[in-house]
Amino acid sequence: xxxxxxxxxxxxxxxxxxxxxLSGIGVTNSQSIVTTxxxxxxxxxxxxxxxxxxxxxxxxxxxxxxxxESERDPVTxxxxxxxxxxxxxxxxxxxxxxxxxxxxxxxxWNGSLxxxxxxxxxxxxxxxxxxxxxxxxxxxxxxxxxSGKNTSDTKAVAQAYSFLxxxxxxxxxxxxxxxxxxxxxxxxxxxxxxVQTILDGIEAGNEPDMGLQGYILGNPVTDSFVDDNSRIxxxxxVNLISDELYERAKLFCNGDYINIDFNNSLCVTSLxxxxxxxxxxxxxxxxxxxxxxxxxxxxxxxxxLRVREAEEMExxxxxNKLPKLTCRSFGYMLSHKWAxxxxxxxxLYVREGTLESSWMRCLKSLPFYTEEISSTIAxxxxxxxxxxxxxxxxxxxxxxxxxxxxxxxxxxxKVPIFDQWRPWYxxxxxAGYLQKYTNDNFRxxxxxxxxxxxxxPEYKHKESMNMVERWFAYYPI
Length: 477
What we know:
Layout: H1 5-23, E1 30-34, E2 48-55, E3 61-68, E4 79-83, H2 91-98, E5 102-104, E6 116-118, E7 128-132, E8 142-143, H3 146-149, E9 151-152, H4 153-170, E10 179-184, H5 187-204, E11 212-218, H6 224-229, H7 231-237, H8 243-252, H9 265-278, H10 305-317, H11 328-339, H12 342-347, E12 369-370, H13 377-383, E13 389-395, H14 403-411, E14 417-426, E15 429-439, E16 442-449, H15 461-472
Parallel strand pairs: 4-7, 4-10, 9-12, 10-11, 11-13, 13-16
Antiparallel strand pairs: 1-2, 2-3, 3-7, 3-8, 5-6, 14-15, 15-16
Helix pairs in contact: 4-5, 8-9, 10-11
């Protein structure tokens, strides 16, 4: 049959579009299986998938993710979407430093491409986990338009929900798995809103179906006042300030160390004395060294952990040889060396030209991001009527989000205590302490990890893996 020129062009366009779709070129969603990685010896002993999912009417936001199937039974084990904190910390951070199956061999680094080893206490031994780079601009995620770069707490949550729906649609084999949402640190602000959004979507009949069972939060920022105000009682409890200093501050500041009346000289003087005791303390783990070589001696406490790390990274990355003092941030530097390597980006199927600047584990700031949430206690209160399960855990050596502040708001949910404060064990040793709460519609387990800091699994891999394995299995921790 003869075709006129317009029909011929239309037919050719359709063929080209079909070929593009089949080849993956120009498609806003993509996924690829990664079997080997630069720096890792041999094939990966687990199934790793990376990809992008487009968000928005024009898919102008492209969220990058790492998905690792459960190494035990991916068909029946839980599926968990993990939100790394920040805002602006890459999902790769949680994958290699906290709960994933890989870790950098810090001691073996000789200046070349960092090497990777297996973390035998990975949470992927008992769960399928999606690590996502969000909000947009984090890690390898990017926007194709200027407007797409603008985001906020609520926009990031809406985009994470859209991501999860699209991901489940393209992975229907996981739609029947029990679904959990997990995260730590700043995710304490965004994760509860995402859980509520999922609940609302289930009630509205949104597709695909989501079998949401509960959520996990570690060292979570939850209420700006409760968390921050608990720091002074915490540092007194762990003997970083004297009884006298604490009693003076409590008396003169009337127990409020945040909303300070600067005309109250006695309160101001007391808090300044406390500040001098804390300036050289590591805020994420009180027993670990402060990397004093990374910056001049501080005159003020920098509570923004992203700023502190960025200053250390600038110093470490500028050095031609290893510093004499090895601290935790040295290990963070290796992720910058590794993730910015062209061979690594090619192996992960990162799209060329989409990274505007160097990859960073945690961005110092997100210029297009608006922080809107100051408390999520009301969301947790609502969850006590939903039938969900919750696991809240804290590293008990963290000043930035002290466990006593977290325990305070947990207790104020007014859910009856089912299991009183007691130790829990790993290999016959006390791994921390726990308290369980339950009513007819909600079960919450609060756990401390003894000796851990902020992002607790990073410090206690074995203990945290035991904790989450028991919790997922409904087995007593």
